[in-house]
Amino acid sequence: MDTISKQNLGVSAYHWLKHDIIRGVFTPGEKLRMSGLKERYGLGIGPLREALSQLVAEHLVVAISQRGYRVAPMSLSELADLYDARAQLEGLLLELAIQRGGDDWEAEILAKAHTLAKVTEVNSPEEQLEVWDTRHKAFHTAIVAGCDSPHLLKVREGLFDQVERYRHLWLRETVFSNEALARKRGEHDALVEAILSRDVPRAAQMMREHLMTPVPIITEAMQRQGLA
Fold first, then answer.
1. For the sheet containing 61-64, what is the strand order?
2. What region holds the HTH gntR-type domain (predicted)?
3. In this predicted model, what pLDDT tens digit does every residue of 112-126 receive, in sequence order?
4. Global pTM?
5. What torsion, rounded to 10 degrees, do the Cα atoms 70, 52, 79, 174 define?
């Protein structure tokens, strides 16, 4: 097998395994047995080890000395720290974006907000979750893109990877509730208004508060599911 094919297998293994960990197919603390992974993904040990090593670096998997790998645990203390870090960083990025962003930046935010608010025909609840999540991420990414700092955006991406398991618990509680979605739409509309007004203190504070609203919802879900 050539080098490119091996790299592609490693990337595929990484994305599949990461997706399953985030979605709770593999639960916190569960041992990731190589035999089971080979059977599930139809891949050899090489690509799977490569994927596991990358997920260890992202704190989604823990390497156990001489005994393989486990899914990283989840905790309320990690939840609080990750969300606080994200909220503080997102507020900073928004401040920079308002200072540096131009007309094209504003137009992109409006376009993504419109797409997120639109009701779309979906075939299943899971598809609804995926569509809303993709559009929600695109909306928030459009907002911070105006900061014009690739290095800060890379830090943001790393935090996003670490928070995804917790975020998925919140998504399941939110996307399937019309009332919760309506509250989110209201928050998004108010946030866009503050951003377009170029009101830096108000917009940054609103962003921080907006990003912290999932924490009590996730806390309750973790306690209910025995994850905390």
1. 31-32, 68-71, 61-64
2. 7-74
3. 999 998 866 677 888
4. 0.87
5. -100
